[in-house]
Amino acid sequence: MGARPIAVLGSTGSIGRTTLDVISTFPDRFRVVALTANRNADALLEQVDRFRPQLAVLADGELPPSDGSAGTKLAAGWDAVLEATSHPDAEIVVNGLVGAAGLEPSLLALEGGKRLALANKESLVVGGPLVMQALERGGGELIPVDSEHSAVFQCLEGAAPESVRRVVLTASGGPFRERDPLDLIGVTPDEALRHPTWNMGAKITIDSATLVNKALEVVEAHFLFGLRYEQVAVVVHPQSIVHSLVEFQDGSVLAQLGYPTMALPVLYALSYPDRVEFDTPSLDLTEVGSLTFEPLPKGRFPAFELGREAALRGGTAPAVFNAASEEAVAAFLQKRLPFTEIPEVIRGVLDAHAVEEVTELEVVRRVDGWARATARGKVDQIGNRAPRLA
Ligand code: MG
User: Fold this and answer.
1) How many angstroms separate the alpha carbon of residue 386 from the centre of ligand 1?
2) 57-101 per-position pLDDT tens digit
3) Which of 91, 227, 304, 325 could form an S-S bond across to 231 if both were Cys, CB 3.0 to 4.6 Å?
4) CATH number of the domain that residue 64 is part of
5) Which 3 state secondary structure label does DSSP give 85?
6) Cα(210) to centroid of ligand 1, in Å?
């Protein structure tokens, strides 16, 4: 068998770069057929030089006209991203896009019967029912790249779905786990971007500080593994060594462990069901010393509670939660919203939302647009009343 052809969406982001490192480590197993980046044309062109894909796409911006001599077709715009996703030669699509925009390519990859290596958890949060329908219709595969879900996926291998009692997702607790909540009012983007254990993109790092990310992951687990929400627990584990656990009906618990690196879940999503020899340091538990676990502190992470409530409401509520939080995080990063007001924006938008059923992509798009506009309105209201941000 030759090298498996892969399309990498979001190739210049954190997941995309990790994926390309993994691919270049295993040139006999994997090769790149298509790359898409959002705005970073220079980084994309460097990757084109290195990997010689058939197609390279810049979603937002212009690329220099290519004469085709290097064998790579260059294209721009969202339609070209979709073209890369459904590239006839790509067997695996790695979705490393950020945010709700990742849903459409996820649907397309699954409809096309491809393996979707999914790092874009928002696909399942905003359009879970649609993703699962596309998986069934297209006959493709859905393999999680999120570290917690990769852990659960690995622990579940060979298990009957009804044999699961519950899953326990671990959370590092982010940079503010031990900070007094009153102390968080003046937190700057730089402080919130300093994650203690994982090295990730900006949006997910802020989502880890508010624990919005963990709420999204609860929804992700619900759809991926067909679990009821009462079956998805979260425990704080500051060392990020145990990536998640599965408890079976007989009380036996399996966990997946490793040093925190996204290379492992990415590699597993590409190589599954094989395990390949990978030159990584062995986990030395005597060096780690102790693994500690604690409950999520009550009231410390209001955005997480809002996410769980939205999950239980179901339908379009998780999509609204996600859109409101994306807008609030963007405003925080631009210093237009205090960190502690992120949950207030989300709450305001969720309170104003009448939940609908997620029956088609158009519903998600309309509700997402409404939620963003409503969130921007809330940001302006709060921004006008809050003291000027440094
Ligand atoms: Mg995760």
Assistant:
1) 32
2) 999 998 887 656 678 999 999 999 999 999 999 999 999 999 999
3) 227
4) 3.40.50.720
5) helix
6) 13
